[in-house]
Design brief:
Elements (H helix, E strand, L loop, with lengths): L1 E10 L2 E11 L4 E5 L6 H8 L7 E6 L14 E4 L11 H11 L5 H9 L15 H13 L5 E5 L7 H16 L3 E5 L3 H7 L2 E6 L2 E7 H7 L4 E5 L3 H10 L4 E3 L5 E4 L3 H10 L6 E5 L3 H9 L35 H7 L5
Parallel strand pairs: 3-7, 3-8, 5-6, 6-7
Antiparallel strand pairs: 1-2, 1-4, 8-9, 10-12, 10-13, 11-12
Helix pairs in contact: 2-3, 3-4, 7-10
């Protein structure tokens, strides 16, 4: 299990991570979400001892990362796929890691085959595409057959087959009882993969809950009705105590009532329905709703006459460089593709 307690990180006057506490438990895929600049990458780097916290602590199976004598056997991580030595072959990159952690050499060929890179095992990694680099990074995370796996944007650069593969791999590893912690900006993919969510904004914890509860608590679900007897339908709904909002195209939207109840009501009054559907919000909609007040870097469409453009990346609204304040957003962008 990963346990984060009061984790805080300052870059000068910039607070990148602010009193963050949570646990990542085995047996489920835990998604780690937040807008750009939220502190996700800095948090993950502190988990692995790559950045020192200003205060607070992170423990992996009760120990700090630097206390693990053979860390790849405890936790495998992919933070930056291109962190491999470009002058070494895929095989030799993994061989060096295996030897440093007393992992059997046979495991190198096993993970290369697992990620589909056997055919290019003897090729230098500097010539790899982004997707091939991702596969090699995933292979390095799997090398020690660890109980904990941490991935930052694991599907970046992968083709549809690769995305399907890594999604099923993470689910399978979680079913084996392993701890899976994954950060991604692809909400549609996260919705298919994660069971539990940890959401942060501006370095602070916003949510620590199941996927279903997160969507339910941070979004709107409603029923849609459409009928050729629209006016009569509105009268019947009003008499039954339901408030219907009419949208473009004559569709009625009603909150807080099931489609079964609405269908039975229409049937009792012999009203023909051309549409009766339940609309449930997506993870993306729920995420946007929750983090609306925590987005640090906003894009602007250009502004009209007399309206100044928004601040450039790396500047405050007055146009002055923000120095280390921009460092966090840069970290969250590294290797992810804008």
């Amino acid at each position: 299990m990963i346990e984060v307690v009061g984790l805080t990180k300052h870059f000068g006057r910039k607070v990148a991570v602010d009193q963050l506490s949570f646990q990542v438990r085995p047996g489920v895929v835990t998604g780690f979400l937040g807008p750009n600049g939220a502190g996700k990458s800095t948090t993950m780097r502190m988990m692995l001892g790559l950045d020192n916290p200003t205060s607070g602590s992170v423990s992996i199976d009760g120990k700090q990362y630097r206390e693990l004598s053979e860390p790849l056997k405890h936790i495998g991580a992919l933070l930056e796929a291109k962190a491999m030595h470009g002058g070494r072959t895929a095989y030799n990159n993994l061989l060096c890691l295996a030897q440093s952690n007393r992992i059997p050499v046979s495991r190198v060929s096993e993970v290369l085959d697992m990620v589909g890179l056997t055919a290019v095992a003897k090729k230098k990694s500097k010539g790899f595409s982004l997707g091939m680099g991702q596969r090699l990074g995933i292979a390095s995370a799997l090398l020690g057959d660890p109980e904990i796996l941490m991935f930052d944007e694991p599907v970046n650069g992968l083709d549809p087959e690769g995305i399907h593969w890594i999604r099923n791999l993470m689910k399978h590893l979680a079913q084996e009882g392993r701890t899976i912690f994954v950060s991604s900006h692809l909400m549609s993919e996260m919705a298919l993969t994660a069971d539990h969510l940890i959401v942060i904004g501006q370095g602070r914890l916003l949510a620590n809950t199941s996927m279903a509860d997160f969507i339910h608590e941070n979004s709107r679900s409603y029923a849609r009705l459409r009928s050729p007897q629209q006016e009569r339908l509105k009268d019947v709904l009003h008499e039954a105590g339901f408030t219907a909002a009419e949208t473009d195209g004559g569709v009625l939207e009603i909150d807080g009532v099931s489609t079964e109840e609405l269908g039975e009501l229409a049937a009792r009054h012999q009203i023909v329905l051309h549409e009766l559907s339940s609309q449930r919000a997506s993870l993306e909609e729920a995420f946007m709703q929750m983090t609306a007040g925590s987005v640090e870097y906003h894009a602007h469409s250009g502004g009209g006459e007399g309206q100044p453009p928004g601040p450039r990346w790396g500047q405050d609204p007055g146009g002055q460089p923000v120095g280390l304040g921009a460092h966090q957003d840069h970290q969250d962008h590294q290797g992810k593709g804008a």
